[in-house]
Protein backbone atom coordinates (compact mmCIF):
# COMPACT_ATOMS: atom_id res chain seq x y z
CA UNK A 1 0.00 0.00 0.00
CA UNK A 2 1.22 3.45 -0.79
CA UNK A 3 1.64 5.50 2.32
CA UNK A 4 -0.77 8.22 1.40
CA UNK A 5 0.82 11.65 1.73
CA UNK A 6 -1.05 12.40 4.93
CA UNK A 7 -1.86 16.07 4.81
CA UNK A 8 -0.50 18.08 7.65
CA UNK A 9 -3.93 18.75 8.88
CA UNK A 10 -4.29 21.58 11.26
CA UNK A 11 -7.97 21.45 11.95
CA UNK A 12 -10.29 24.38 12.05
CA UNK A 13 -8.81 25.55 15.31
CA UNK A 14 -5.35 25.79 13.83
CA UNK A 15 -3.89 23.52 16.51
CA UNK A 16 -1.31 21.11 15.11
CA UNK A 17 -1.66 17.48 16.18
CA UNK A 18 1.11 15.91 18.25
CA UNK A 19 3.51 13.81 16.20
CA UNK A 20 2.53 10.60 17.99
CA UNK A 21 -1.15 11.04 17.21
CA UNK A 22 -2.47 8.07 15.15
CA UNK A 23 -2.82 8.52 11.41
CA UNK A 24 -5.12 6.27 9.42
CA UNK A 25 -4.26 5.40 5.84
CA UNK A 26 -6.47 2.53 4.71
CA UNK A 27 -8.15 3.62 1.45
CA UNK A 28 -10.94 1.15 2.18
CA UNK A 29 -12.51 3.49 4.70
CA UNK A 30 -14.83 6.03 3.22
CA UNK A 31 -18.03 7.83 4.08
CA UNK A 32 -19.44 5.97 1.07
CA UNK A 33 -18.62 2.67 2.81
CA UNK A 34 -19.82 3.86 6.21
CA UNK A 35 -23.13 5.19 4.90
CA UNK A 36 -23.91 1.90 3.21
CA UNK A 37 -22.96 -0.12 6.27
CA UNK A 38 -24.86 2.31 8.48
CA UNK A 39 -27.96 1.94 6.36
CA UNK A 40 -27.82 -1.83 6.86
CA UNK A 41 -27.21 -1.49 10.61
CA UNK A 42 -30.09 0.98 10.90
CA UNK A 43 -32.47 -1.33 9.06
CA UNK A 44 -31.42 -4.27 11.25
CA UNK A 45 -31.94 -2.36 14.49
CA UNK A 46 -35.29 -1.15 13.13
CA UNK A 47 -36.35 -4.76 12.50
CA UNK A 48 -35.14 -5.77 15.97
CA UNK A 49 -36.96 -2.87 17.62
CA UNK A 50 -40.29 -3.57 15.92
CA UNK A 51 -40.16 -7.34 16.41
CA UNK A 52 -38.95 -6.81 19.97
CA UNK A 53 -41.92 -4.59 20.75
CA UNK A 54 -44.26 -7.15 19.16
CA UNK A 55 -42.76 -9.75 21.46
CA UNK A 56 -43.19 -7.48 24.46
CA UNK A 57 -46.85 -7.03 23.52
CA UNK A 58 -47.29 -10.82 23.54
CA UNK A 59 -46.33 -10.78 27.22
CA UNK A 60 -48.33 -7.67 28.16
CA UNK A 61 -51.34 -7.30 25.86
CA UNK A 62 -54.17 -4.87 26.45
CA UNK A 63 -57.33 -6.85 27.18
CA UNK A 64 -59.25 -4.92 24.50
CA UNK A 65 -56.65 -5.78 21.84
CA UNK A 66 -55.80 -9.47 22.35
CA UNK A 67 -53.31 -11.37 20.22
CA UNK A 68 -54.88 -13.07 17.21
CA UNK A 69 -54.74 -16.87 16.91
CA UNK A 70 -53.84 -16.63 13.21
CA UNK A 71 -51.47 -16.80 11.51
CA UNK A 72 -50.45 -19.68 13.71
CA UNK A 73 -46.76 -19.08 12.97
CA UNK A 74 -46.79 -15.30 13.50
CA UNK A 75 -44.73 -15.23 16.70
CA UNK A 76 -42.43 -17.92 15.33
CA UNK A 77 -41.65 -15.66 12.37
CA UNK A 78 -41.34 -12.33 14.21
CA UNK A 79 -39.23 -13.68 17.05
CA UNK A 80 -37.12 -15.87 14.76
CA UNK A 81 -36.49 -12.72 12.73
CA UNK A 82 -35.68 -10.73 15.88
CA UNK A 83 -32.95 -13.11 17.02
CA UNK A 84 -31.59 -13.92 13.55
CA UNK A 85 -31.36 -10.22 12.71
CA UNK A 86 -29.77 -9.44 16.06
CA UNK A 87 -27.11 -12.10 15.55
CA UNK A 88 -26.39 -10.84 12.02
CA UNK A 89 -26.11 -7.29 13.35
CA UNK A 90 -23.18 -8.23 15.59
CA UNK A 91 -20.66 -8.64 12.71
CA UNK A 92 -22.33 -5.83 10.79
CA UNK A 93 -21.94 -3.37 13.67
CA UNK A 94 -18.31 -4.37 14.20
CA UNK A 95 -17.52 -3.60 10.56
CA UNK A 96 -19.49 -0.34 10.73
CA UNK A 97 -17.46 0.70 13.78
CA UNK A 98 -14.23 -0.29 12.03
CA UNK A 99 -15.16 2.02 9.17
CA UNK A 100 -15.44 5.06 11.45
CA UNK A 101 -12.70 4.19 13.91
CA UNK A 102 -10.50 7.13 12.74
CA UNK A 103 -13.23 9.52 13.89
CA UNK A 104 -12.30 8.58 17.45
CA UNK A 105 -8.96 10.33 16.82
CA UNK A 106 -10.16 13.75 15.75
CA UNK A 107 -7.83 16.49 16.83
CA UNK A 108 -8.46 18.32 19.08
CA UNK A 109 -10.68 15.69 20.72
CA UNK A 110 -13.36 18.22 21.62
CA UNK A 111 -13.65 21.43 19.64
CA UNK A 112 -16.73 22.98 21.12
CA UNK A 113 -19.65 22.24 23.41
CA UNK A 114 -21.69 21.16 20.40
CA UNK A 115 -18.92 18.83 19.23
CA UNK A 116 -18.60 17.42 22.75
CA UNK A 117 -22.32 16.68 22.92
CA UNK A 118 -22.20 15.03 19.52
CA UNK A 119 -19.35 12.79 20.67
CA UNK A 120 -21.29 11.97 23.83
CA UNK A 121 -24.27 10.90 21.72
CA UNK A 122 -21.97 8.64 19.70
CA UNK A 123 -20.65 7.13 22.94
CA UNK A 124 -24.23 6.42 24.08
CA UNK A 125 -25.05 4.89 20.70
CA UNK A 126 -21.96 2.68 20.49
CA UNK A 127 -22.08 1.49 24.09
CA UNK A 128 -25.82 0.77 24.16
CA UNK A 129 -25.74 -0.97 20.76
CA UNK A 130 -22.79 -3.18 21.76
CA UNK A 131 -24.30 -4.10 25.13
CA UNK A 132 -27.74 -4.69 23.59
CA UNK A 133 -26.39 -7.10 20.98
CA UNK A 134 -24.00 -8.86 23.37
CA UNK A 135 -26.52 -9.42 26.14
CA UNK A 136 -29.21 -10.40 23.63
CA UNK A 137 -26.93 -13.01 22.09
CA UNK A 138 -25.82 -14.36 25.48
CA UNK A 139 -29.47 -14.62 26.50
CA UNK A 140 -30.07 -17.00 23.59
CA UNK A 141 -27.30 -19.17 25.10
CA UNK A 142 -29.09 -19.02 28.48
CA UNK A 143 -26.09 -17.17 29.83
CA UNK A 144 -26.75 -14.33 32.24
CA UNK A 145 -23.47 -12.92 33.58
CA UNK A 146 -25.23 -9.79 34.90
CA UNK A 147 -27.43 -9.02 37.90
CA UNK A 148 -30.32 -7.17 36.25
CA UNK A 149 -33.54 -8.64 34.88
CA UNK A 150 -32.95 -9.31 31.20
CA UNK A 151 -36.37 -8.65 29.59
CA UNK A 152 -37.04 -5.19 31.01
CA UNK A 153 -33.44 -3.97 30.67
CA UNK A 154 -33.29 -5.27 27.10
CA UNK A 155 -36.48 -3.37 26.32
CA UNK A 156 -35.42 -0.05 27.89
CA UNK A 157 -32.00 -0.33 26.29
CA UNK A 158 -33.84 -0.92 23.01
CA UNK A 159 -35.35 2.56 23.35
CA UNK A 160 -31.90 3.99 24.08
CA UNK A 161 -30.42 2.28 21.01
CA UNK A 162 -33.19 3.21 18.57
CA UNK A 163 -33.35 6.75 19.95
CA UNK A 164 -29.57 7.20 19.61
CA UNK A 165 -29.73 5.85 16.07
CA UNK A 166 -32.43 8.34 15.02
CA UNK A 167 -30.49 11.16 16.70
CA UNK A 168 -27.31 9.99 14.95
CA UNK A 169 -29.04 9.92 11.56
CA UNK A 170 -30.28 13.45 12.20
CA UNK A 171 -26.78 14.66 13.11
CA UNK A 172 -25.07 12.87 10.22
CA UNK A 173 -27.68 13.41 7.52
CA UNK A 174 -25.40 15.53 5.27
CA UNK A 175 -22.63 12.90 5.51
CA UNK A 176 -25.13 10.10 4.89
CA UNK A 177 -26.41 11.94 1.84
CA UNK A 178 -22.88 12.38 0.49
CA UNK A 179 -21.95 8.80 1.32
CA UNK A 180 -24.95 7.21 -0.34
CA UNK A 181 -24.64 9.36 -3.45
CA UNK A 182 -20.89 8.96 -3.85
CA UNK A 183 -19.56 6.10 -5.92
CA UNK A 184 -17.91 3.40 -3.86
CA UNK A 185 -14.71 3.39 -5.91
CA UNK A 186 -13.83 7.07 -5.86
CA UNK A 187 -15.43 8.53 -2.73
CA UNK A 188 -13.21 10.33 -0.21
CA UNK A 189 -11.01 8.27 2.09
CA UNK A 190 -12.15 8.57 5.69
CA UNK A 191 -9.27 9.38 8.05
CA UNK A 192 -8.92 11.07 11.41
CA UNK A 193 -8.97 14.41 9.55
CA UNK A 194 -12.49 15.56 8.70
CA UNK A 195 -12.95 15.67 4.93
CA UNK A 196 -13.66 19.38 4.86
CA UNK A 197 -10.27 20.08 6.46
CA UNK A 198 -8.33 17.69 4.27
CA UNK A 199 -7.10 19.56 1.20
CA UNK A 200 -6.40 16.27 -0.56
CA UNK A 201 -9.92 14.91 -0.07
CA UNK A 202 -11.48 14.13 -3.38
CA UNK A 203 -14.34 16.48 -2.88
CA UNK A 204 -12.02 19.40 -2.00
CA UNK A 205 -9.29 18.89 -4.54
CA UNK A 206 -11.64 18.65 -7.47
CA UNK A 207 -11.19 16.04 -10.13
CA UNK A 208 -8.45 13.87 -8.65
CA UNK A 209 -7.95 10.20 -9.49
CA UNK A 210 -9.80 7.79 -7.18
CA UNK A 211 -7.85 6.47 -4.17
CA UNK A 212 -5.59 3.60 -5.11
CA UNK A 213 -6.60 0.25 -3.65
CA UNK A 214 -3.93 -2.21 -4.65
CA UNK A 215 -5.20 -5.11 -2.53
CA UNK A 216 -8.81 -5.44 -1.39
CA UNK A 217 -11.06 -2.71 -2.75
CA UNK A 218 -14.29 -1.40 -1.29
CA UNK A 219 -16.46 -3.66 -3.39
CA UNK A 220 -14.35 -6.59 -2.21
CA UNK A 221 -14.90 -5.45 1.36
CA UNK A 222 -18.65 -5.67 0.91
CA UNK A 223 -18.34 -9.08 -0.74
CA UNK A 224 -16.30 -10.36 2.22
CA UNK A 225 -18.58 -8.83 4.87
CA UNK A 226 -21.66 -10.11 3.04
CA UNK A 227 -20.16 -13.60 2.78
CA UNK A 228 -19.23 -13.68 6.46
CA UNK A 229 -22.69 -12.56 7.55
CA UNK A 230 -24.37 -14.96 5.12
CA UNK A 231 -22.30 -17.81 6.57
CA UNK A 232 -23.30 -16.83 10.10
CA UNK A 233 -27.00 -16.55 9.25
CA UNK A 234 -26.98 -19.82 7.32
CA UNK A 235 -25.29 -21.75 10.13
CA UNK A 236 -27.33 -20.28 13.01
CA UNK A 237 -30.85 -19.84 11.67
CA UNK A 238 -31.48 -23.61 11.53
CA UNK A 239 -32.71 -23.36 15.12
CA UNK A 240 -35.90 -21.84 13.76
CA UNK A 241 -35.86 -22.54 9.99
CA UNK A 242 -36.07 -26.31 10.31
CA UNK A 243 -34.77 -27.26 6.82
CA UNK A 244 -31.51 -25.43 7.62
CA UNK A 245 -30.90 -27.30 10.88
CA UNK A 246 -28.64 -29.72 9.00
CA UNK A 247 -26.17 -26.93 8.27
CA UNK A 248 -26.63 -25.39 11.71
CA UNK A 249 -22.95 -25.62 12.60
CA UNK A 250 -23.30 -22.63 14.94
CA UNK A 251 -26.98 -23.05 15.86
CA UNK A 252 -27.72 -23.24 19.55
CA UNK A 253 -30.77 -25.50 19.62
CA UNK A 254 -31.27 -28.86 17.98
CA UNK A 255 -34.98 -29.62 18.10
CA UNK A 256 -34.48 -33.28 17.18
CA UNK A 257 -32.39 -33.82 20.33
CA UNK A 258 -35.13 -32.62 22.66
CA UNK A 259 -37.58 -35.01 24.31
CA UNK A 260 -40.27 -35.97 21.75
CA UNK A 261 -38.45 -33.86 19.16
CA UNK A 262 -39.04 -30.56 20.97
CA UNK A 263 -36.52 -28.77 23.20
CA UNK A 264 -37.59 -27.46 26.59
CA UNK A 265 -36.36 -24.46 28.51
CA UNK A 266 -37.58 -25.33 31.99
CA UNK A 267 -37.07 -28.94 32.98
CA UNK A 268 -39.36 -30.64 35.51
CA UNK A 269 -36.40 -30.90 37.84
CA UNK A 270 -35.48 -27.22 37.70
CA UNK A 271 -39.15 -26.29 38.11
CA UNK A 272 -39.36 -28.47 41.27
CA UNK A 273 -42.39 -30.41 40.03
CA UNK A 274 -40.93 -33.93 39.76
CA UNK A 275 -43.14 -35.22 42.60
CA UNK A 276 -46.13 -32.92 42.27
CA UNK A 277 -46.66 -33.66 38.56
CA UNK A 278 -46.66 -37.41 39.09
CA UNK A 279 -48.75 -37.47 42.28
CA UNK A 280 -51.72 -39.89 42.33
CA UNK A 281 -53.97 -37.25 43.77
CA UNK A 282 -53.32 -34.80 40.93
CA UNK A 283 -56.51 -33.01 39.91
CA UNK A 284 -57.33 -30.30 37.41
CA UNK A 285 -59.48 -27.73 39.15
CA UNK A 286 -61.62 -25.64 36.80
CA UNK A 287 -63.23 -22.60 38.42
CA UNK A 288 -66.01 -20.56 36.90
CA UNK A 289 -69.75 -20.10 37.27
CA UNK A 290 -70.06 -23.94 37.42
CA UNK A 291 -66.76 -25.21 38.84
CA UNK A 292 -65.62 -28.83 38.54
CA UNK A 293 -62.59 -31.06 39.06
CA UNK A 294 -61.04 -33.69 36.79
CA UNK A 295 -58.78 -36.64 37.53
CA UNK A 296 -56.20 -37.75 35.01
CA UNK A 297 -58.50 -40.55 33.81
CA UNK A 298 -61.42 -38.15 33.39
CA UNK A 299 -59.26 -35.66 31.55
CA UNK A 300 -57.88 -38.28 29.20
CA UNK A 301 -61.34 -39.62 28.38
CA UNK A 302 -62.60 -36.23 27.16
CA UNK A 303 -62.94 -35.38 23.46
CA UNK A 304 -59.51 -34.56 22.12
CA UNK A 305 -58.37 -32.93 18.90
CA UNK A 306 -55.06 -32.76 17.05
CA UNK A 307 -53.44 -29.46 16.09
CA UNK A 308 -50.18 -28.42 14.45
CA UNK A 309 -48.84 -25.50 16.44
CA UNK A 310 -45.20 -24.43 16.65
CA UNK A 311 -43.46 -24.03 19.96
CA UNK A 312 -41.74 -20.66 19.52
CA UNK A 313 -39.33 -19.46 22.16
CA UNK A 314 -38.52 -15.82 22.85
CA UNK A 315 -34.87 -16.91 22.50
CA UNK A 316 -35.43 -17.32 18.78
CA UNK A 317 -35.65 -21.09 18.43
CA UNK A 318 -38.86 -22.75 17.34
CA UNK A 319 -40.12 -26.07 16.09
CA UNK A 320 -43.35 -27.28 14.53
CA UNK A 321 -45.13 -30.00 16.52
CA UNK A 322 -48.26 -32.09 16.55
CA UNK A 323 -50.27 -31.64 19.72
CA UNK A 324 -53.28 -33.63 20.89
CA UNK A 325 -55.45 -32.43 23.71
CA UNK A 326 -58.75 -31.12 24.98
CA UNK A 327 -60.01 -27.85 23.45
CA UNK A 328 -59.87 -25.20 26.16
CA UNK A 329 -63.27 -24.03 24.97
CA UNK A 330 -64.86 -27.37 25.93
CA UNK A 331 -63.71 -26.87 29.52
CA UNK A 332 -64.74 -23.21 29.44
CA UNK A 333 -68.26 -24.13 28.34
CA UNK A 334 -68.54 -26.82 31.00
CA UNK A 335 -67.43 -24.27 33.61
CA UNK A 336 -70.22 -21.95 32.49
CA UNK A 337 -68.06 -19.59 30.41
CA UNK A 338 -68.13 -18.65 26.73
CA UNK A 339 -65.67 -17.97 23.91
CA UNK A 340 -65.50 -14.37 25.13
CA UNK A 341 -64.32 -15.44 28.60
CA UNK A 342 -60.86 -14.74 29.99
CA UNK A 343 -59.04 -17.89 30.95
CA UNK A 344 -56.11 -18.06 33.32
CA UNK A 345 -54.13 -21.27 33.81
CA UNK A 346 -51.88 -22.10 36.76
CA UNK A 347 -48.88 -24.42 37.01
CA UNK A 348 -47.74 -26.67 39.82
CA UNK A 349 -44.41 -24.89 39.53
CA UNK A 350 -43.85 -22.79 42.64
CA UNK A 351 -42.36 -19.29 42.70
CA UNK A 352 -41.97 -18.34 39.07
CA UNK A 353 -43.27 -15.33 37.18
CA UNK A 354 -44.24 -17.76 34.42
CA UNK A 355 -46.19 -20.27 36.51
CA UNK A 356 -49.48 -18.88 35.19
CA UNK A 357 -50.70 -17.26 32.02
CA UNK A 358 -53.76 -15.58 30.56
CA UNK A 359 -55.68 -16.52 27.44
CA UNK A 360 -57.64 -13.73 25.81
CA UNK A 361 -59.86 -13.30 22.78
CA UNK A 362 -59.25 -15.52 19.76
CA UNK A 363 -56.68 -17.63 21.60
CA UNK A 364 -59.35 -19.00 23.97
CA UNK A 365 -61.10 -20.66 21.04
CA UNK A 366 -57.86 -21.97 19.51
CA UNK A 367 -55.97 -23.27 22.56
CA UNK A 368 -55.66 -26.84 23.77
CA UNK A 369 -54.84 -28.40 27.09
CA UNK A 370 -52.34 -30.78 25.52
CA UNK A 371 -51.89 -34.33 26.75
CA UNK A 372 -49.92 -35.65 23.76
CA UNK A 373 -46.94 -34.34 21.80
CA UNK A 374 -45.86 -35.80 18.46
CA UNK A 375 -47.95 -38.92 19.04
CA UNK A 376 -46.76 -39.73 22.57
CA UNK A 377 -48.07 -39.01 26.04
CA UNK A 378 -46.60 -35.66 27.08
CA UNK A 379 -43.08 -35.95 28.54
CA UNK A 380 -42.61 -34.80 32.11
CA UNK A 381 -40.28 -32.04 30.89
CA UNK A 382 -42.98 -30.90 28.46
CA UNK A 383 -45.55 -30.42 31.20
CA UNK A 384 -47.07 -33.80 32.08
CA UNK A 385 -49.88 -34.38 32.97
CA UNK A 386 -51.24 -31.47 30.95
CA UNK A 387 -50.04 -28.17 29.52
CA UNK A 388 -51.43 -25.26 27.59
CA UNK A 389 -50.62 -24.89 23.90
CA UNK A 390 -51.95 -22.07 21.74
CA UNK A 391 -50.99 -20.71 18.32
CA UNK A 392 -49.02 -17.46 17.83
CA UNK A 393 -47.82 -17.47 21.43
CA UNK A 394 -44.38 -17.37 23.08
CA UNK A 395 -43.29 -20.78 24.36
CA UNK A 396 -43.05 -19.76 28.00
CA UNK A 397 -46.68 -18.58 28.00
CA UNK A 398 -47.77 -22.11 27.09
CA UNK A 399 -47.80 -22.95 30.77
CA UNK A 400 -46.79 -26.47 31.77
CA UNK A 401 -47.77 -28.85 34.63
CA UNK A 402 -51.24 -27.33 34.96
CA UNK A 403 -53.43 -27.93 37.97
CA UNK A 404 -55.91 -25.06 37.92
CA UNK A 405 -57.89 -23.02 35.44
CA UNK A 406 -59.93 -19.90 36.14
CA UNK A 407 -62.73 -18.88 33.78
CA UNK A 408 -64.01 -15.31 34.21
CA UNK B 1 -32.97 18.60 4.89
CA UNK B 2 -33.01 20.86 7.97
CA UNK B 3 -36.59 19.90 8.74
CA UNK B 4 -35.78 16.16 8.55
CA UNK B 5 -32.74 16.62 10.75
CA UNK B 6 -34.76 18.38 13.41
CA UNK B 7 -37.54 15.76 13.27
CA UNK B 8 -35.03 12.91 13.57
CA UNK B 9 -33.17 14.64 16.37
CA UNK B 10 -36.33 15.34 18.38
CA UNK B 11 -37.80 11.85 17.87
CA UNK B 12 -34.47 10.20 18.67
CA UNK B 13 -33.86 12.41 21.67
CA UNK B 14 -37.28 11.61 23.10
CA UNK B 15 -36.91 7.84 22.66
CA UNK B 16 -33.40 7.98 24.10
CA UNK B 17 -34.55 10.02 27.09
CA UNK B 18 -37.49 7.67 27.67
CA UNK B 19 -35.18 4.63 27.64
CA UNK B 20 -32.67 6.22 30.02
CA UNK B 21 -35.49 7.40 32.30
CA UNK B 22 -36.98 3.91 32.51
CA UNK B 23 -33.56 2.34 33.17
CA UNK B 24 -32.75 4.83 35.89
CA UNK B 25 -36.14 4.55 37.59
CA UNK B 26 -36.73 0.79 37.28
CA UNK B 27 -33.31 -0.71 37.97
CA UNK B 28 -32.05 -0.65 41.53
CA UNK B 29 -28.86 1.25 42.23
CA UNK B 30 -26.54 -1.78 42.28
CA UNK B 31 -27.83 -3.14 38.98
CA UNK B 32 -27.65 0.30 37.42
CA UNK B 33 -24.03 0.59 38.48
CA UNK B 34 -23.17 -2.77 36.91
CA UNK B 35 -25.01 -1.76 33.74
CA UNK B 36 -22.94 1.42 33.66
CA UNK B 37 -19.80 -0.68 33.96
CA UNK B 38 -20.98 -2.88 31.06
CA UNK B 39 -21.71 0.14 28.88
CA UNK B 40 -18.33 1.70 29.56
CA UNK B 41 -16.51 -1.63 29.24
CA UNK B 42 -18.14 -2.29 25.86
CA UNK B 43 -16.64 0.90 24.44
CA UNK B 44 -13.29 0.41 26.14
CA UNK B 45 -12.98 -3.19 24.93
CA UNK B 46 -14.07 -2.32 21.41
CA UNK B 47 -12.13 0.90 20.95
CA UNK B 48 -9.16 -0.15 23.05
CA UNK B 49 -8.70 -3.82 22.14
CA UNK B 50 -10.75 -5.08 19.19
CA UNK B 51 -10.37 -2.09 16.87
CA UNK B 52 -6.59 -1.66 17.45
CA UNK B 53 -6.16 -5.37 16.74
CA UNK B 54 -7.84 -5.02 13.36
CA UNK B 55 -5.74 -1.95 12.57
CA UNK B 56 -2.62 -3.85 13.60
CA UNK B 57 -3.59 -6.80 11.44
CA UNK B 58 -4.18 -4.46 8.52
CA UNK B 59 -0.74 -2.91 8.92
CA UNK B 60 0.93 -6.31 9.24
CA UNK B 61 -0.82 -7.47 6.07
CA UNK B 62 0.79 -4.71 3.99
CA UNK B 63 3.89 -6.94 3.94
CA UNK B 64 1.98 -9.38 1.70
CA UNK B 65 2.07 -8.67 -2.06
CA UNK B 66 -1.17 -6.95 -3.14
CA UNK B 67 -2.43 -9.70 -5.45
CA UNK B 68 -2.41 -12.31 -2.69
CA UNK B 69 -3.26 -9.79 0.01
CA UNK B 70 -6.81 -9.12 -1.10
CA UNK B 71 -7.73 -12.81 -0.74
CA UNK B 72 -5.95 -13.03 2.58
CA UNK B 73 -7.78 -9.91 3.78
CA UNK B 74 -11.09 -11.37 2.65
CA UNK B 75 -10.48 -14.72 4.32
CA UNK B 76 -9.33 -13.13 7.57
CA UNK B 77 -12.32 -10.80 7.64
CA UNK B 78 -14.84 -13.59 7.04
CA UNK B 79 -13.05 -15.83 9.54
CA UNK B 80 -12.95 -13.13 12.20
CA UNK B 81 -16.67 -12.39 11.89
CA UNK B 82 -17.56 -16.08 12.19
CA UNK B 83 -15.19 -16.50 15.14
CA UNK B 84 -16.84 -13.64 17.05
CA UNK B 85 -20.14 -15.54 16.99
CA UNK B 86 -18.55 -18.94 17.68
CA UNK B 87 -16.52 -17.98 20.76
CA UNK B 88 -19.47 -17.57 23.18
CA UNK B 89 -20.91 -20.87 21.91
CA UNK B 90 -17.65 -22.63 22.70
CA UNK B 91 -17.48 -20.97 26.10
CA UNK B 92 -20.98 -22.17 26.91
CA UNK B 93 -20.80 -25.75 25.60
CA UNK B 94 -22.08 -28.57 27.84
CA UNK B 95 -23.45 -26.35 30.56
CA UNK B 96 -27.18 -27.03 30.24
CA UNK B 97 -29.58 -29.88 31.07
CA UNK B 98 -29.91 -32.39 28.23
CA UNK B 99 -33.61 -31.94 27.51
CA UNK B 100 -33.07 -28.28 26.65
CA UNK B 101 -31.33 -29.59 23.49
CA UNK B 102 -29.12 -26.51 23.63
CA UNK B 103 -25.40 -26.16 22.83
CA UNK B 104 -24.93 -29.85 22.10
CA UNK B 105 -22.81 -29.40 19.00
CA UNK B 106 -19.05 -29.65 18.75
CA UNK B 107 -18.48 -25.96 18.20
CA UNK B 108 -14.66 -25.99 18.09
CA UNK B 109 -14.81 -28.60 15.31
CA UNK B 110 -17.56 -26.71 13.49
CA UNK B 111 -15.65 -23.45 13.75
CA UNK B 112 -12.53 -25.16 12.38
CA UNK B 113 -14.60 -26.53 9.52
CA UNK B 114 -16.01 -23.10 8.67
CA UNK B 115 -12.58 -21.48 8.88
CA UNK B 116 -11.14 -24.25 6.72
CA UNK B 117 -13.87 -23.74 4.13
CA UNK B 118 -13.23 -19.98 4.17
CA UNK B 119 -9.52 -20.54 3.60
CA UNK B 120 -10.25 -23.03 0.83
CA UNK B 121 -12.58 -20.64 -1.01
CA UNK B 122 -10.03 -17.82 -0.74
CA UNK B 123 -7.27 -20.12 -2.03
CA UNK B 124 -9.36 -21.26 -4.98
CA UNK B 125 -10.26 -17.67 -5.89
CA UNK B 126 -6.60 -16.69 -5.62
CA UNK B 127 -5.49 -19.65 -7.73
CA UNK B 128 -8.08 -18.82 -10.40
CA UNK B 129 -6.81 -15.28 -10.55
CA UNK B 130 -3.20 -16.39 -10.85
CA UNK B 131 -4.17 -18.81 -13.62
CA UNK B 132 -6.11 -16.15 -15.46
CA UNK B 133 -3.17 -13.80 -15.40
CA UNK B 134 -0.83 -16.49 -16.72
CA UNK B 135 -2.80 -17.40 -19.82
CA UNK B 136 -1.65 -14.99 -22.50
CA UNK B 137 -3.30 -17.22 -25.16
CA UNK B 138 -6.76 -16.28 -23.91
CA UNK B 139 -5.87 -12.64 -23.86
CA UNK B 140 -4.79 -12.82 -27.50
CA UNK B 141 -8.04 -14.56 -28.43
CA UNK B 142 -10.02 -11.86 -26.69
CA UNK B 143 -8.04 -9.20 -28.50
CA UNK B 144 -8.74 -10.77 -31.88
CA UNK B 145 -12.42 -11.03 -31.26
CA UNK B 146 -12.73 -7.34 -30.69
Terminal-residue CA separation of chain B: 48 Å
From the spread of the alpha carbons, the general shape of chain B counts as extended
Decide which structural class fits the backbone of chain B.
mainly alpha
* Elements of chain B, N to C (H/E): HHHHH
What is the average per-residue confidence, as pLDDT of chain B, rounded to a whole number? 92
**Can you count the helices of chain B?**
5
State the helicity of chain B in percent bands: over 70%
What is the topological layout?
The complex is a heterodimer of chains A (408) and B (146).
Chain A: H1 31-59, H2 74-99, H3 113-140, H4 150-181, H5 202-205, H6 218-236, E1 284-287, E2 292-294, H7 296-300, E3 305-312, E4 318-327, H8 328-334, E5 343-347, E6 356-359, H9 362-366, E7 368-373, E8 376-377, E9 387-389, E10 402-407
Chain B: H1 2-26, H2 29-61, H3 66-92, H4 107-133, H5 136-145
Helix pairs in contact in B: 3-4
Q: What would the keywords be for this entry?
A:
heterodimer, A: 408 residues, alpha+beta, Sulfite Oxidase, Chain A, domain 2, 2 domains, five-stranded mixed β-sheet, 9 helices, 12% strand, disordered N terminus, B: 146 residues, mainly alpha, 5 helices, 0% strand
Describe this structure in words.
The complex is a heterodimer of chains A (408) and B (146). Chain A is of the alpha+beta class and 408 residues long. Chain A has two domains: 31-247, no CATH class; 276-407, Sulfite Oxidase, Chain A, domain 2, CATH 3.90.420.10. Helices cover 38% and strands 12% of the residues of chain A. Chain A has helices at 31-59, 74-99, 113-140, 150-181, 202-205, 218-236, 296-300, 328-334, 362-366; strands at residues 284-287, 292-294, 305-312, 318-327, 343-347, 356-359, 368-373, 376-377, 387-389, 402-407. In chain A, strands 2-1-10-5-6 form a five-stranded mixed β-sheet. In chain A, a hairpin with a 5-residue loop joins strand 3 (305-312) and strand 4. In chain A, helix 1 (31-59) runs antiparallel to helix 2, helix 1 (31-59) runs antiparallel to helix 4 (150-181) and helix 3 packs across helix 4 (150-181). The radius of gyration of chain A is 28 Å and the shape is elongated. The model of chain A is unreliable at 1-12 (pLDDT under 50). By secondary structure, chain B is mostly helical. Chain B has two domains: 1-52; 64-146, no CATH class. Chain B is built from five helices and no strands. In chain B, 23% of the residues are buried. The mean pLDDT of chain B is 92.
Amino acid sequence: MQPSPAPEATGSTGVIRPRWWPRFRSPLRSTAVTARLGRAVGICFGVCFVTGMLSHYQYHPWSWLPEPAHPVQAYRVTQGLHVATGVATIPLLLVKLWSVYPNLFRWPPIRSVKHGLERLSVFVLVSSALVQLTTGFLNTLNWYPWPWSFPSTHRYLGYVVIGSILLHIGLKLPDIKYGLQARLADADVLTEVPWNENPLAHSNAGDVPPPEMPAMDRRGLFVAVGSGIAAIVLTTVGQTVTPLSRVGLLATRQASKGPQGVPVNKTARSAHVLTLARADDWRLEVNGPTPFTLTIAELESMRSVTRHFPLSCVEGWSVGAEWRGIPVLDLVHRAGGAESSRVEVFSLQPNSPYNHSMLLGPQVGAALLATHLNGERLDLDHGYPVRLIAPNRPGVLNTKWLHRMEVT
Amino acid sequence: MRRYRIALGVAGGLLLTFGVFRLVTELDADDLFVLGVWLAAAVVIHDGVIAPMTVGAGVALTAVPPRARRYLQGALLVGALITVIAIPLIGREDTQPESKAILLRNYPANLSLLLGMTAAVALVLYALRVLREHRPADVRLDDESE
